[in-house]
Amino acid sequence: MKAMKAKRILALTALFTGLALPVRAQTFGLETLDLQYIEQGWGEPRANKSVDGHPLFLDGKRYDHGVGTHANSTFRIALGGTAETFMAVVGVDDEVGEKGSVTFKVIGDRKLLWQSGELHGGDRAKKVSVPLRGMKTLVLFVDGGADINYDHADWADASIVMASGKPQAVAPARQPAVVLTPKSGPNPRINGARVFGVRPGAPFLFTIAATGQRPMTFSAENLPSGLELDPQTGRITGGLKEKGIYTVNLKAANALGTAARPLKIVCGDTIALTPPLGWNSWNCFGCDVSEDKVRAAADAMVSSGLINHGWTFINIDDCWEAGRDAGGNVMSNKKFPDMKALTDYVHSKGLKMGLYSSPGPKTCAGHEGSYKHELTFWR
Length: 379
What we know:
By secondary structure, the protein is mainly β. It has helices at residues 2-17, 282-285, 291-303, 339-348, and strands spanning 26-29, 39-40, 46-47, 56-58, 61-63, 66-70, 73-92, 101-108, 111-120, 126-131, 137-144, 152-169, 189-190, 195-198, 204-207, 210-211, 217-221, 227-229, 235-238, 244-254, 257-267, 278-280, 313-316, 321-324, 330-332, 352-355. The protein is 11% helix and 40% strand.
């Protein structure tokens, strides 16, 4: 009762004398801010988890709160009010072992307030406590070394103490997208590879890459036995049984004219005779890749017209694996419920499908690799 009476007296005194009551500081966890505004070199930032989606671990200690990111990364924060302190424990997440090298930096109003020095996987984590009094903006940087692979950086137990107001994540400035490639003309033009390699007995799929006004029809002179061309789509399919070199004259025609160009088909022990041109899931999605995203990438390659300039491959990198069956075959995980149906879909677009498998026992992300399960012959 006495305590309650004292509070009432203090409040009334403040009311009549104009004195300000003391304000209790509030602590905001970094993970409670809008993490979509973090810019980083690989993957996606994660609240209360590492960039690979595991619990945050530094020096063998688990942290329930914080942000997992990947070098190089930048997080801009507006300190809307009176800021007191930024606190965290930083280091390279234990999930990468002794790999990775990063430097953490805390910037306030464009001034370097604190930096960790270069930290490597397995190094002791460092505690951060930086006064922010008078600061209006806070920027959290993670710089990588010469090689940013495995730079899994954790801002563990990261928080901002505010005497008043609350911090807010700031969206990075976005420059408008500009297409610098000149638009294709209406006349037919054949693009893409001039030489194509395939092994004997392997399925053959080659889409004639041609720009120009549609509708367009395609033809091929001297097409070897075993191959056939769809004149509407320009796709050559089938298979070659014997080794050999074949020169085929490709043609693409529309209402404005005809374009022609030779294609050398090499059936033998070597493939990828020209640099493969296409899309890979890793740098875009990392371990967040899924069947829907792969289908969308194939759709985009066709709808954007890239396929008409010779873009050919849709490649799934790591994180599709789910262990092996009794026969030793690597199985796809729940994000890829029907890999054959997905491959058939990509092929139906006139594109090729690529699939990554590590030469070691485990992949970079820790999934099943192909070690001791490699094919030693070609059927």
